[in-house]
Amino acid sequence: MRSLARFAAPLLAAALLLPGCAKRPPVPAPTGEDTAATAEAEVKPAPVDTLPTAVPPAVPPPPKVAVAVEPVVPEQATKQALEPKPAVNAAIKPPRSEPAAPAAESGQAARPAEAQAAATKTKRTDGPVVAVVGDSLAVGVGMTMEQRLAKAGGPGCLPMGKVSTGLISKKYDWEKALAETLASRPVSAVVVVLGGNDANNAIAGKGAGTPEWQEAYTAKVEHFLAIAAKAGVQVMWVGLPAMKDPAYGKRVAAVNAAARAGCAKTSGCRYLEPGDIFTDASGNYVQAKDIGGKTVSLRAGDGVHMTMTGYDLLCRRVLDVLGPVANPAKP
């Protein structure tokens, strides 16, 4: 027993000195919060620096491409600045002396086939023609004369009427146009219906009806008629009809007086007064007349131009006075 006790004391001391065998403080039991924190820490994903693969990365927009603009040279810029820009006007009424071209009256419109046939007949390019020159009144006379001459089988018709023109107006050079026409083709006669716009235009600051204007306009008429006289072509100057507006009618009467005087001084010129076609027995303006027991309108609503019936009546008188020049069948 003494020998066992002698060995037991050293063994016990050695056991107490070995590592890991020292006495440690007790570890507290984990609480519910600690358990939740530990679980959360275990399942929380680590932060990532990129987007999930299910979402495509944002693509930056393509850079804008600058479009090269051709520089405007000074000449072009000046031209663009000086060129007149067309004005947009709604429902502008034509001048009193220049309404729209005459339209066919109700019941007188030709069927398409007839109109096409008439147009084909009147497009004559050979042989002598009767040239109708002047303003918008000449347009209506030329239309009806073209149809009548085509039916009669006589010389062709060359309608040359231009709206808003005259011997004073600079819009159209009638002297040049007449000279070129007479030099380029055979013309049997010239019918002039002109002056509706000239009645509203002053000459050297003087208006129609003044002595200065009358003298100057008569000289213009003579100079114009001399072109046909030099070419040996006879001219018929058709006076303007009575006008509805009294003031305008007086100016038109001054035009007729100057045209009559200029025609009297020119060889080969005859002046035709349309008077009684468009006036009553007292010489006053009338809008309509009784023809064959039926009241027929002869003048347009503006009191200046004529209906197609009015133009046709005037045209028939012109052709009757022209005689064989316009109709070879007549003696």
From TrEMBL:
GO molecular function, one term: hydrolase activity, acting on ester bonds
Endpoints of the signal sequence: 1-22
Pfam families assigned: DUF459
Keyword terms, alphabetized: Signal
Region (Disordered): 22-55, 77-123
SUPFAM superfamilies (UniProt xref): SGNH hydrolase (SSF52266)
Biased composition regions of type Low complexity, renumbered to the chain: 30-53, 98-120
Protein name: Uncharacterized protein
Native species: Solidesulfovibrio magneticus str. Maddingley MBC34
